[in-house]
Amino acid sequence: MSSKQVYILDTTLRDGQQSPGAGMSFEDNLQYAELAHKLRIDILEAGFPSASNTDFAIVNQISKNMAAINSAMRISALCQLREEQVIRTMEALAPSLAIGKARIHIYVPVDPELMPASLGKFAEDKPAIITTTYRLIKMMADAGFEVEFSPEGYSRQRENFDFVTDLIRNAVKAGATTINCPDTIGGASQYQGEEYFVHKMAKHKQIIETEFPDKDIIWSMHCHNDFGTALDNSLYGVFSGVARQIEGCINGVGERAGNVSLEQCIMVIRQFGHGAHLPEKYHTNIDISHLKEISDFIAERMLPRQPHSPVVGKNSASHTSGGHINAILKNPLAYQPFDPRDIGSEITFVFGPLSGSNHAQQIIHKFKYRCDDNEKVAVTQSIKDFYADRRKGVTDEELLQAYKYYRSPIKLEHLTYAKEDGGKTRVTFHGEFFAEKDLVIDYQGRGSALSALNKAVNNHLANTTVVDYNSHSKGSTVDALCISSIIIDVNGNRYNGQAEDEDIEISALKAFIDAVNNAYIETNFRV
Ligand SMILES: CC(=O)SCCNC(=O)CCNC(=O)[C@H](O)C(C)(C)COP(=O)(O)OP(=O)(O)OC[C@H]1O[C@@H](n2cnc3c(N)ncnc32)[C@H](O)[C@@H]1OP(=O)(O)O
Question: Nearest C-alpha to atom 17 of ligand 1 is from which residue?
């Protein structure tokens, strides 16, 4: 069976920017259009040219840019049922008209509650609304524009069904080729029964098909998400065979709770559009490999995106729980409904308190250190203890630090030193020192506390010598911290250590311990 294309109208630049704080710069609007072109959006609603000179310039420049590359994407712009707006919108879209890719989207309210609020006295004169609709649409169609007509508030038309029929009839007669039926206030649900607007669309569609058998009108969904039903409504319209166009915004931005998320519609059509039970098969022309890119753009330049946003959210392909990661390590798609690489994303992991030993082991192996199966649980527990207060997780590099601490033979808690007359130095060490705990190191002869510690280390790591050492102050005051760097040689191999402390001698001792720990770990646990 052949598959029907569902047209995607992207109104991110128009309806998306109609929410507080969502406005983007002139340049960002133009850049977004480039991304929409790459994504192979069918129709880009680029703005509302009559809103301001800048909005006119944005639409006009996008229209010019897309005409210059002969983009297959239609450029659309919105206007009210007002002649001066129609003229301004036609001017803005002139470059797209020249390549046969210009659409004008014109709207007038039909919701009985919205009509007087929005239109004032004009709302009382329905015949005038109908004749104006016919006249303005004919004007645009005669000028060569593709026309989309929206009876605004369609989903709440109530007793206005016959008025809406008359409006649509006249719009089609005048040359409109797309009839968009918005759930403007976002309150519709298929659980409304006969009042559900998609059932009314089916009736209107049937009337128009009967009256205009030669016209192939595209019926369109435009759903807001006030109750979170925008996706369900949009897809109901398509999968029930009524609609062939979906209007929405990337990341579901838009007025109030937003418009339907285009990425969700696109992926659901891809996933379920060929279901055996569907009367017809459906697909979109979207190049989904650019979905993540365009979504990230909107998240950065327009409005922030929830981490758990479906399809594109940062967490939608990121995992932390041990149970899931264990399975994903064996089968990357074990916990993904689609391959994130298809949309330009990737599966990532964040190690946290709920992660497991297979995950920790994989990170440690990635850095090329040893973590055997019989010790991975103990290693993992020590890493979790090390980061007991990091409930939101740690980076792989931070995990490696905790691993190294676990492997370190010297775990310093506290250290003091004293010098006596006669060349005696005493270092008092608290913590773990190879297999020992809390020791006192006495050293007799020339040299500092560092010599004392070096002597003690040599009992466990033979042939350890300091080959380079320097300390410098971190600031210019007398109480500035001291930073020490040290290089040691162990059996011909060199290892670095760094540390800082208020006391120059202790900073050197700590740097030496750091270097010894590095030497021990690199010697014993490097793969
Ligand atoms: C569902 C939707 O998303 S619809 C899109 C809504 N988008 C926008 O409003 C964004 C851009 N809007 C704007 O910049 C401005 O509102 C403009 C330029 C469109 C209009 O501005 P103004 O005329 O200066 O003021 P205002 O917005 O208050 O408009 C009120 C007038 O529009 C008329 N009007 C409202 N909707 C419509 C309509 N669909 N068709 C015809 N006239 C309309 C009203 O009757 C009213 O007329 P009046 O001034 O004679 O009383």
Answer: 51
CATH number for region 3-312? 3.20.20.70
| Rounded-to-integer distance, Cα 131 and Cα 146, Å | 19
Q: Which residues contact 374 (CB under 8 A, 6 or more apart)?
A: none
- Atom 29 (ligand 1): residue with closest C-alpha? 118
Tell me whether domains 3-312 and 410-525 share a fold.
no
User: How far does residue 80's CA lie from ligand 1's centre (Å)?
Assistant: 7
How far is the C-alpha of 339 from the C-alpha of 187, rounded, in Å?
33
Which residues are near ligand 1 (CB < 6 Å)? Answer: 15, 18, 48, 50-51, 80-82, 107-109, 118-120, 122, 152, 184
Tens digits of per-residue pLDDT, 216-241? 999 999 999 999 999 999 999 999 99
17 CA → ligand 1 middle, Å:
16
For the structural domain made of 410-525, what CATH number should be given?
A: 3.30.160.270
- Structure ipTM: 0.96
Residues 6+ apart with CB under 8 A from 38: 287, 290, 293, 294
State which of 56, 88, 119, 130 you would mutate to test the pocket of ligand 1, scoring each by most atoms of that ligand within 8 A of its C-beta.
119
Q: Which atom of ligand 1 is nearest the CA belonging to 108? A: 39
Reference 515, options 406, 370, 418, 409; nearest CA is: 409
pLDDT tens string 360-387: 999 999 999 999 999 999 999 999 999 9
Residues 328 and 495: their CA atoms lie apart, in Å, by: 37
Q: Which atom of ligand 1 is nearest to the CA of 120?
A: 45
Provide the token pair at 408. 């370190």
Q: Domain-by-domain residue ranges, the chain?
A: 3-312, 315-407, 410-525
Q: How far is the CA of 235 from the centre of ligand 1 (A)?
A: 30
110: alpha, beta or left? (left if phi > 0; alpha if psi -120 to 50): alpha
